Amino acid sequence: MKMNSETNKGKTCFVYKDIKCREYYGKKNGNVCFGCTVKTSKARIETNDVIVVAEYGDHDHSDTVA
Ligand SMILES: [Zn+2]
User: Fold this and answer.
1) How do beta strands 19-26 and 51-56 pair?
2) Does 62 fall in a domain?
3) The domain containing residue 25 runs over which residues?
4) In total, how many domains does the chain have?
5) How far is the CA of 15 from the centre of ligand 1 (A)?
6) How far is ligand 1, taken at its centre, from the CA of residue 50, in Å?
7) What pLDDT score was predicted for residue 43?
8) How do 4-6 and 12-16 pair as beta strands?
9) For ligand 1, a single-atom ion, which residues have Cβ within 5 Å?
């Protein structure tokens, strides 16, 4: 399975621990932040060259069946 895929808007998606995240912020240091695509989820990850360097927030997926 590919780790990265392009959405139809050209945004990069990143799959981490079976959670699909969407690129939403590129930092000046080159790291890229991704947000969980689940609406109720506040979780974010920060990556550097597709390596996850930090995780923030908690996944609230109460509306979904994991
Ligand atoms: Zn989540």
Assistant:
1) unpaired
2) no
3) 4-30+41-56
4) 1
5) 11
6) 18
7) 95
8) antiparallel
9) 36, 38, 41, 43, 59
21 CA → ligand 1 middle, Å: 8
Report if residue 22 sits inside a domain: yes
Distances (CA, A) of 43 to 1, 15, 21: 23, 13, 9
Q: 13: CA distance to ligand 1 center in Å?
A: 14
The answer as to whether 36 is a domain residue is no
- Is residue 50 situated within a structural domain? yes
Ligand 1 centre to CA of 20 (Å) is 8
What are the average pLDDT values for consecutive 10-residue runs of the chain, which has 66 residues? Answer: 56 87 93 93 92 94 68
Predicted TM-score of the model (pTM)? 0.74
**Ligand 1 centroid distance, CA of 46 (Å):** 14
Q: What is d(CA 28, CA 47) in angstroms, rounded to the nearest whole number?
A: 13
